[in-house]
Automatic annotation (TrEMBL):
Signal peptide: none
Keyword field: ATP-binding, Cell inner membrane, Cell membrane, Membrane, Molybdenum, Nucleotide-binding, Translocase, Transport
Organism listed in the record: Limimaricola cinnabarinus LL-001
NCBIfam families: modC_ABC
InterPro entries with a match to the protein in the record: AAA+_ATPase, ABC_transporter-like_ATP-bd, ABC_transporter-like_CS, Mo/tungstate-bd_C_term_dom, ModC_ABC_ATP-bd, Molybdenum_import_ModC, Mop_domain, P-loop_NTPase
Pfam families linked to this entry: ABC_tran (PF00005), TOBE (PF03459)
Occurrences of domain Mop (ranges): 279-344
Record-level GO cellular component terms: membrane
Protein name: Molybdenum transport ATP-binding protein modC
ABC transporter domain span: 5-219
Gene Ontology molecular-function annotations: ABC-type transporter activity; ATP binding; ATP hydrolysis activity; molybdate ion transmembrane transporter activity
Length: 349
C-alpha cells in the first residue's frame, strides 16, 4: 500500500502467515499508519489489503469495505473502556461471541463486577482485548498495547498475551518498538523504517540477523532461542535449560520440568572466545559457528549458529580483528546467567 501523509511517504508491502505479526521499528516508521489502513481508518492512495483471502481494499478495483464490515478488532495504547459501567457490560459492548471462553482465556472472571477505575493498567488492557475478541474479528490489531504500562504491569499482562497468541486462533497484527515484546510474542517480524518494509521473516531469523541490527538498534539487538527446562537446582535456585546446541542455567524458577520456553539473549551480553575459557565464573559456555558479520557505526554484529538456534553478538572492531572473525570460524559464546532479564523469558509458541 502507498499513502502520502504530508512530508511522509508510506510505501509498505508484505505477506505473512497466521500468528502474531509484529510491525517493529522506531517511532515514526509508519507502523500505526499501516494498521490504520488495514482497519479502514486510513485510505491508501494505492495498493490493496487482503486478510485470509478476504479483499478489504483495492484501489485499482475500487474495493473499499467499510470499517464496520471489516470484522477487525482494534486494541489501542490506552484501553478506552467506558468508566461508568462494569467490566461485564464493557465486554458485552463488543458482542457475545465465545463469551465464556474469552473470559476464561484472559483471566477475567473475578473482574466482571468491577468498574475500570478499580482495575490495574494490565487488567484494563485484558478487558479491552476481551471486548475486541467478542466482536468475532477475523483479525486483531494491537497498537503498542503495553507502552503506557510500567514494568510490573507489563510483566503481569505478557503471559496473557502469550496465551492469546496460542489459543485465540486468529491472526494478530502487533505494533511495537520494544524488542523484548516482539521476541516474546511474535511469530513473524516485519521491520519498518521511514515508511518502508525493510525485512520480513520468522522472529528467530530476523532478530538474529546481523544485517538487521542497524534497523533495530544496537541496544535492542538480540536473538531468540528456544529451550526446554531440563533441571531445577534447589541449592542455587537456578533453572537448567536444554538448547539445541547445549545447556545453560538461568536464575529463578522458570516453570516445571519439560516446559518449553523462548528466550531473548541480548547481543551485548554475548562474549566470544576462540578458546574454551577456563577459570571463569560464567556457567553458560556454548560452542558456536560464525555465520555472518556486519560492520556498523557502533561495532561489528556477529551472527552465530549454535545447534539449530541462532545467536547474535556485538563486538568492537578491535575485538573482531583480534579474534580474526570470519564466517565458518568455530568459537565459544559465553552468556552470563544474570544477563537474561525476566521479561525476556516467555512461553514458546
Amino acid at each position: 500500500m502507498k499513502k502520502r501523509l504530508g512530508a511522509f511517504d508510506l510505501d509498505a508491502m508484505f505477506e505473512a502467515p497466521p500468528g502474531v505479526i509484529a510491525l517493529f521499528g522506531r517511532s515514526g516508521s509508519g507502523k500505526t499508519s499501516v494498521i490504520n489502513a488495514v482497519a479502514g481508518l486510513l485510505r491508501p492512495d494505492a495498493g490493496r489489503v487482503e486478510i485470509g483471502g478476504a479483499l478489504l481494499y483495492d484501489k485499482a478495483a475500487r474495493v473499499d469495505v467499510p470499517v464496520h464490515r471489516r470484522r477487525i478488532g482494534y486494541v489501542f495504547q490506552d484501553a478506552r473502556l467506558f468508566p461508568h459501567i462494569s467490566v461485564a457490560k464493557n465486554l458485552a459492548y463488543g458482542g457475545d461471541h465465545d463469551r465464556d471462553r474469552v473470559i476464561d482465556m484472559l483471566g477475567l472472571p473475578d473482574l466482571l463486577d468491577r468498574r475500570p477505575v478499580a482495575l490495574s493498567g494490565g487488567e484494563r488492557q485484558r478487558v479491552a482485548i476481551g471486548r475486541a475478541l467478542m466482536s468475532h474479528p477475523r483479525l486483531l490489531l494491537m497498537d503498542e498495547p503495553l507502552s503506557a504500562l510500567d514494568a510490573e504491569r507489563k510483566a503481569e499482562i505478557l503471559p496473557w498475551l502469550e496465551r492469546l497468541r496460542d489459543e485465540a486462533g486468529l491472526p494478530i497484527l502487533y505494533v511495537s518498538h520494544a524488542a523484548s515484546e516482539v521476541a516474546r510474542l511474535a511469530t513473524t517480524v516485519v521491520v519498518m523504517e521511514a515508511g518502508a518494509v525493510k525485512r520480513v521473516g520468522a522472529v528467530s531469523e530476523v532478530l538474529s540477523d546481523p544485517a538487521a541490527v542497524g534497523m533495530i538498534g544496537a541496544q535492542e539487538a538480540g536473538a531468540v532461542v528456544y529451550a526446554r527446562i531440563a533441571g531445577l537446582d534447589r541449592i542455587d535456585g537456578l533453572t537448567e535449560l536444554a538448547l539445541s546446541g547445549g545447556r545453560i542455567v538461568l536464575p529463578g524458577r522458570l516453570g516445571g520440568l519439560g516446559t518449553h520456553l523462548r528466550l531473548r539473549i541480548s547481543a551485548q551480553d554475548v562474549i566470544l572466545s576462540r578458546e574454551r575459557p577456563v577459570g571463569l565464573s560464567a556457567l553458560n559456555i556454548l560452542s558456536a559457528e560464525v555465520t555472518a558479520l556486519d560492520e556498523g557505526p557502533e561495532g561489528v554484529a556477529v551472527g552465530l549458529r549454535c545447534g539449530h538456534d541462532r545467536l547474535l553478538a556485538r563486538v568492537t572492531r578491535r575485538s573482531a580483528r583480534a579474534l580474526r572473525l570470519e564466517p565458518g570460524l568455530q568459537l565459544w559464546a559465553i552468556v552470563k546467567a544474570s544477563a537474561v532479564a525476566p521479561q525476556d523469558v516467555g512461553g514458546a509458541a
